[in-house]
Amino acid sequence: MATTGKVVGIISNLVVVKVNGPVSQNEICYIDHEAVKLMAEVIRIGSENAYIQVFESTRGLKTGTPVEFTGHMLEAILGPGILSKNFDGLQHDLDKMEGVFLQKGDYTHPLEVDKNWSFKPLAKVGDEVETGSWLGEVTENWIAHKIMVPFTSKGDFKVTKIVASGDYKIEDTIAVLEDAEGNNHPVSMIQKWPVKVPIKTYKNKPRPAKFLETGIRVIDSFTPIVEGGTGFIPGPFGTGKTVLQHALSKQADADMIVVAACGERANEVVEIFAEFPELDDPRTGRKLMERTTIIANTSNMPVAAREASVYTAMTIAEYYRSMGLKILLLADSTSRWAQALREMSNRMEELPGPDAFPMDLPAIISNFYSRAGFVNLKNGETGSVTFIGTVSPAGGNLKEPVTEATKKAARCFYALSQNRADSKRYPAIDAVESYSKYLEYPEYIDYVSKAISPNWVDNILQARNSLVRGRETYEQINILGDDGVPIEYHEIFWKSEVIDFVILQQDAFDKIDASTPINRQQYMLEKVLTINNTRFNFEHFEEVNPYFKKIINVLKQMNYSEFESEQFKKFEKELEEIINEKAVVETEQL
C-alpha cells in the first residue's frame, strides 16, 4: 500500500509532510492541491516528517493537504522521439503546452505514443542478451536509435520472441526475454530510468584520450578537449558564452547535442528556441535541431526544477551514449543550478558553506561531472558524453565558490575575459589563464602525435610560452614607455600578437573562418611559429608595429581563404616576401 501523508509546514518550495509509512530519499510524491496534483521530491527524511521540494509554485497551498508517495524516484522516459524536442526540467514536452506560462499540474508525455516507427530487429530468437544489449533499431531523424534491453533489468536473458521488421508504436511489445528462472519479460521501445542514478550499462570507462575536434582554434590548439572529456566556461555577461556554445553545437565532432538551459533568463532561452531551429548543420547539411534536444528551465520557473533539468539532460545523454553515439552536453548555466541548491539548503537550515552555498557543493558538482566520459560498450562499440558547462560568476569573479568547485571537477578551464570581449577579440577565451589538463595525459600526447603531428604538443607549449612572454613585455612597455625598453621587447610583444590575431581570434560569422579543420590549424600554427622563431632586423622600435601589422593582415587573409586554394597560396607567397624584407636568419620549418 502506498505511503500517504499530510502537509504540516510550507516554506516557499520546501514543504514538510507528516507521513504514515516508509519513504525513500529522492522519492517522488504528489500533493493533491485543489484537484491539481503537484509533483515533488523527497530531499530529507526525519523521524516522522519528510521534507519535500515541490517542482511547482506552492502559492495557495495549505497545511492539512493530502500527499501521496509513488515509491519511485524522478525518472526520465527514454525512447524514440526525444530528438528535436523542447522539454522542461521534468521532461514535459513544452511544445504540447498552451499559453505563455506553465500551468500548475499541467504535465505532458515527452514522447509521441501514437506515432509509428519503422523497427528493424538486430537480435534474433535464441540470442543471449543482458542489460543494455541492442535488440533492434529505428531511424530517428537520421540517427540509428537503438532499442535496448531495459537498464533496470538484472542478469542474463534469452530472446524468446522478437517482432519482424515493420511499423510499431513505442508502447508495443517488440521482444520477449526469458530470465534464468524461466520468467518472461515483455520489452517495448520505451523505458524509464531515475535521473539521479548514472546509467552503467558499459563494459568499462577508461580515461578519455581521443581528441575531439571543435573547429575552434583556441580550443583545439591551446586548450583541447577530448571525446568524453569535461570542461567549463566561466565569464561575465557579454563575453560571448552563447555564441561560443552555438559554435560548439554546430562544429564539434558529435552525433547528438543536448542543451540544458538550467535557470537562465527567459529571454536568453527564447533565443535558443528561436535560433537553434534556424541553424544549419555543417556536418549533415540539414537543420542542427534534427540532432539536438533542449531541456529548458528558465529563472522564472520553480527553483526545484532547475536541479532536475541538469540531471534529466545528463540521463538523456547517457541513454544515447549506450547506443554507441558521441554526445555533446552543454549546460547553461550551472551557476543557476548551484543557486537552486543554495536556496533549498538554506530553507532546510543546513550549515552554510562559502557564500551560503551548501557545504557539499564541490562533491555534488564532482559527482555530476563524473557521469560524463568515454565508455567501451559490452558489444565492442564505444560511446561518449562530452560535458561543457558554463558558469556565470557574479561580477566576473572567478574566485567565487561555484567556479572554484567546478575547477576541481572539470579537466578544461575556458576563462572568458572581459578585456578581450571589450576589445572585440573573439572568442574571448584567455589562452594564458585557461588550461586543459588533457595536455598532460600520456594517452592524449600519444594519440595526437599519431593523429595530428609528432610535434603538436610541443608546438602548443611553445606558442603558449610566447603569449606569456608577450603579456609580460606589454606590461613593461606600458610602464617604461615605447622608447624605454629594448627593440627586442617590441618584437617579442608583436610576435605574441601574431599568435593572438591569427590563431586565437576567429570570425564565427565567416563561412570559412568559422570552423577550422585540425590539419589547417596545424599548418597555420607551424607557419606562425616559424615567424616566431625568426630573428628580424629593426633599427628603430617604430618600424616594428607597422611591419608586424602587415604580417598579421596577410595571415588573416589566409584564414579567410579556402585552404590551399590559389588565393591562399598567393597570400602565402606575399607573406614570404614580407618576412624576407627584415629576416636576419631563415629558420627551418618546425
UniProtKB/TrEMBL annotation:
Q: Which GO biological process annotations does it have?
A: proton motive force-driven plasma membrane ATP synthesis
SUPFAM superfamilies (alphabetical): C-terminal domain of alpha and beta subunits of F1 ATP synthase (SSF47917), P-loop containing nucleoside triphosphate hydrolases (SSF52540)
Metal-binding as a keyword of this entry, yes or no, is no
- Protein name as it appears in the record: V-type ATP synthase alpha chain
User: Which positions are tagged coiled coil?
Assistant: 561-588
Species: Draconibacterium sediminis
The record, for CDD domains, names: ATP-synt_F1_V1_A1_AB_FliI_N, V_A-ATPase_A
Q: Function of this protein?
A: Produces ATP from ADP in the presence of a proton gradient across the membrane. The V-type alpha chain is a catalytic subunit.
Which residue numbers delimit the ATPsynthase alpha/beta subunit barrel-sandwich domain?
Answer: 109-196
